[in-house]
Amino acid sequence: MKAVRLTGTNTLTLDDAPKPAPRAGEALVQIRAAALNHRDVWIKRGEYAGVRYPLIPGSDGAGVVNDVGEGVDPSWVEREVIINPAFDWGHRERAQEPRFTILGLPHEGTFAEYVTVPVAQLAPKPAHLSWEESAALPLAGLTAFRALFRRAHLEAHEKILITGIGAGTALFALQFSKAVGAIPFVTSSSPEKLQRAQVLGAKHGTLYSMPSWAKEFGEQYGPFDVIVDSAAGPGFADLVDLAAPGGRIVVFGATRGNPHELATRKIFWKQLSLLGTTMGSPADFAAMVEFVTRHAIHPVVSATFPLAEAGAAFEMMESAGQFGKIVLRT
User: Fold this and answer.
1) Mean pLDDT for all residues in the chain
2) Mind listing the pLDDT tens digit for each residue in 274-296?
3) H-run or E-run covering 303
4) 0.85 exceeded by the pTM?
5) In terms of CATH, what superfamily is 142-276?
6) What is 2-137+299-329's CATH number?
7) pLDDT given for residue 132 in this prediction
8) What 8-state DSSP symbol labels residue 19?
9) 3-class DSSP string for 160-229
């Protein structure tokens, strides 16, 4: 089979690789489409914990079951599926256990013509989605769903601020919050992305690159009941100011590093909840897929590349040029 391999830091190749065989409890999935995440970029750069080469990256994928291992019902063969990339969550819904891992490292990932995964990681492909949309859904959709509904407990009519719109998880947060009747607001460094977010249902947006953006935006549209952030860094203090009394700030990334300082007095006086989240449990994944199906949500796909042009797909993500998910077709 053809597979995209990382043979070293920033060394990406398209190679022939042995077609994997499913072991007991596993399914062999013929990948129709796979999608990039920022996790893949960090692995490519050697900036992710536990990186080892060579490896086949890719956490997101959708395809057709081609074969099954011992103990798996043969009726799985030829089913159209999406893959839950969150492995071995554990027994507690509250948080993942230490054995938790993600498809694409240490497991061989989806940037290949075939991948083997435990059959428990498969869900039926939503019928209203294309292959590209299906591949775009799992990791970012799961992360956004848990952040909004399991951690922040977002409700209808609440105001939610989503930072860094344009990335996959932020766009799912926008679509999901709109679906339940919440009122979404967004930030970006790109006027074009703000405009496109408003087409998707954002009430208003602002450029976080502008001086005093938080003060002016907060005075006009705030405060916000829920804030979803993946950047952290120096701007995190602004989010504390923008949060409503009793508000919830959910963090699932730290692309700008750690905050320089936090005004603790504001956190306790406003009775804020600072919530961390990482992907989600099998129950979260099942609920997310059902939610997407019930509300007929279509993931936003920014661009599609053939597997042979994976390098160009990585370049697009590294330049932050996307609005939505970047997809590879096998």
Assistant:
1) 96
2) 999 999 999 999 999 999 999 99
3) strand 301-306
4) yes
5) NAD(P)-binding Rossmann-like Domain (3.40.50.720)
6) 3.90.180.10
7) 98
8) P
9) EEECCECEHHHHHHHHHHHHCCCEEEEEECCHHHHHHHHHCCCCEEEECCCCCHHHHHHHHHCCEEEEEE
